[in-house]
């Protein structure tokens, strides 16, 4: 059974392939499916809404079940920003380094007690019959005073979990506690239940 993974992010595709392959499911990228999702506008106001928009578009374009995630970092001192705008927080052409530096600049006078933050990941699966599986995972931590480590991607070098930067841990260690790891574990459980209840031939 094929599932379209509604992302152009190779790292996200790899993570989802790890989850789905033991279930006998082939994870297919939009490119491999011969479609483009560049015209899909993320007009939602929450992570869940945006992940649904992407998954629904991929499902309708291909006729296959589609999975999408939407994720980002929410900083307490910035009233939850950048949130759903995490990817575009410092501008459309900004690098990860630019985004990290912008947050550090905005928090330069914020003491440790006010540097709380959390990552959120919403995962949505839309089936051709319009059935939907949707879950959300979070990981709580703090914003560092400076980047540390070159692992991971996005805001990982400035996000501290138990005092250690996500940029300084292995992918395996990160998966155990991260927002995406938490969301994907819950998603896997819900997907298995759905496939069994609906007698879907994997």
Précis, in short:
The chain has 202 residues and is of the alpha/beta class. It contains 5 helices and 7 strands; from the N terminus they run βαβαβαββββαα.
3D architecture notes:
- Strands 2-1-3-4-5-6-7 form a 7-stranded mixed sheet.
- It is built from 5 helices and 7 strands.
- The relative contact order is 0.14.
- The protein has 202 residues and is an alpha/beta fold.
- The model has no long low-confidence stretch (mean pLDDT 92).
- The longest helix has 19 residues, at 179-197.
- Helices cover 32% and strands 22% of the residues.
Major sheet: 7 strands, mixed
State the separation between the terminal residues, measured CA to CA.
5 Å
Which term fits the overall shape?
A: globular
State the assembly state of the protein chains: single chain
Q: Could you spell the SSE succession in H and E letters?
A: EHEHEHEEEEHH
In percent, how helical is the residue content? Answer: 25-40%
What are the low-pLDDT stretches, counting only 5+ consecutive residues below 50?
none
List keywords for this structure.
202 residues, alpha/beta, seven-stranded mixed beta sheet, 32% helix, 22% strand
Walk me through the topology.
Layout: E1 2-5, H1 10-20, E2 26-28, H2 47-62, E3 66-75, H3 96-106, E4 116-126, E5 132-143, E6 159-161, E7 164-165, H4 171-177, H5 179-197
Parallel strand pairs: 1-2, 1-3
Antiparallel strand pairs: 3-4, 4-5, 5-6, 6-7
